[in-house]
Write a structure and sequence with these properties.
Organism: Microbacterium lemovicicum
Order of helices and strands: EHEHHEHEHEEHHEHEHEHH
Number of strands: 9
Helix content: 25-40%
CATH superfamily: Alpha/Beta hydrolase fold, catalytic domain
Strand order of the largest sheet: 2-1-3-4-8-9
GO molecular function: catalytic activity
Low-confidence stretches: none
CATH class: Alpha Beta
Structural class: alpha/beta
Largest sheet: 6 strands, parallel
CATH topology: Rossmann fold
Pfam family, one: Abhydrolase_6
Number of helices: 11
Oligomer: single chain
Protein name: AB hydrolase-1 domain-containing protein
Length: about 230
Amino acid sequence: MSERPTILLVHGAWHGAWAWDLVKTRLEEHGWAVRTLDLPTVHAERIEGLHLSDDADAVRDAIAAVGGPVVVVAHSYGGVPTTQAATDDAVQHIVYVAAFVLDEGESLLGAVGGVAPSWWVVDGPTATAGTEQEPAASLFFADVEPSAAEAAVARLKPQSVLAFQEPLTGAAWRTKPSTYIVTEQDAIFPEPAQVGLAARAGSTVRRLNTSHSPFLSQPDAVVEIIEEAARG
């Protein structure tokens, strides 16, 4: 019997490993080994000056630390460093959750049109998410139970702007099988754009009728899709 892969969960911009708590608990209850990480462009002591490559290095190190087969699950911006880093032979599958599936030479800022969206609040080298007109709760957590959404908003942190500007130097989806979870009620990431990126990567598409954060609103459904990918 082949070795069961470890599942590595990579969070998106402004978030942290905490975002995966419900999914991680359920996977572990099902017998999976699970690892998470906090990306340095959000969680380093000083995020100013940190780039996408710093996050990619962190993902690459987390993959290497497993010492065996890995399935990497990446949400939103987390798909960018994952795409750059998940080229190791140990990576068996990538699961993109409403994630940016970019190609070599592309940046996240370029992918959204070259101009920061109206809900990014850029303050020099860092950016926060959400404005009075476009609150983070509605953008990220529209279908999450209100008290849980409020708690999640309180945990969002500033992000290094350079992470959005640096282009990728590699694209793991060119050689790795992938699954793409399309979030059909996403206020941040239009469904057609998600479908287009999934098609580019040749991903198996799974759909959830959720906002941008199905790991909080429908964790059981997310777990089911991850397990499908991990079983091969």
